[in-house]
Amino acid sequence: MPAETRPPENGTVSGHDAEALLGRTARGDERAFEMLYDVVAAPVHGLIRRVVRDPAMAEEVTQEVMIEVWRTATRYDPDRGGAMAWIMTIAHRRAVDRVRREQSAGEREARAVHPAAHQGTGAAHDPVGERVEARLEHERVRRCLRTLTHLQRESVTLAYYGGHSYREVAELVGAPPNTVRTRMRDGIIRLRDCLGVER
Q1: Nearest to 160 by CA among 67, 92, 88
Q2: How confident is the model at residue 199, as a pLDDT?
Q3: What CATH topology corresponds to 126-199?
Q4: Whole-structure pTM value
Q5: Beta carbons within 8 Å of 90's beta carbon, 6+ residues apart
Q6: Which of 5, 134, 181, 183 is most buried, by CB atoms within 10 Å?
Q7: How far apart are CA 118 and CA 135, in angstroms?
Q8: What is the DSSP letter of 28?
């Protein structure tokens, strides 16, 4: 088994192990984050997939959740619940937020196509402001993507914007799936560092 995916020596990772890995992640331990990633990515994606439905979007939200786990690990309080519960709560919140955002986008498009039918149905709508805000956020992400190596950026871009699974990315870039997983984890760590400076 490659070093990147090797579980702790005692075999399967228990809730206690996940808490230990999350605690080490909070202290900036990248190896611990890699191990935690391997443990939680599948259940996180499964939960998100049930909420979001769309496979490509579920992959994207899963990566957003893992970035948030890395960025906010210091906020985890073991006295308030287990590590898996904390991470799955983040995943559920992110998934619900994405569904609501997509629904809102659909409603905005409907208002733009048929403005008369939606007059007086809610608060003032500022499409220009929303477009500017979205553009600034996209530019921030693009700027951070430029800090990645070519291989990291290629893998992250194919997964995020192409909606491809790890296996599909591996086929597209001609690399083993485990190598792609490692690139993605390293890319998430570097994106966290970039985005964290500006948060």
Answers
A1: 67
A2: 38
A3: Arc Repressor Mutant, subunit A (1.10.10)
A4: 0.53
A5: 65, 68, 69, 72
A6: 183
A7: 25
A8: T
Residues in the chain: 199
Q: In a 3-state reduction of DSSP, which class is residue 121? A: coil
Take residue 117 and report the two structure tokens written for it: 């039918």
- Residue 169: Cβ within 10 Å count: 23
Domain ranges of the chain: 1-115, 126-199
Residue pair 18/85 in contact (Cβ under 8 Å)? The answer is no
Q: What's residue 75's pLDDT? A: 92
Q: For residues 133 and 120, what is the distance between their CA atoms, to the nearest angstrom? A: 24
DSSP 8-state assignment for residue 164: -
Q: In one letter, which amino acid is 167?
A: R
d(CA 15, CA 12): 10
Is 1-115 a domain of CATH 1.10.1740.10? yes
Parts of the chain with a pLDDT under 50: 1-13, 114, 118, 120-123, 197-199
18 vs 185: CA distance, rounded Å: 17
Give the separation between CA 127 and CA 124, rounded to whole angstroms.
10
Distance CA 66, CA 166 (A): 15
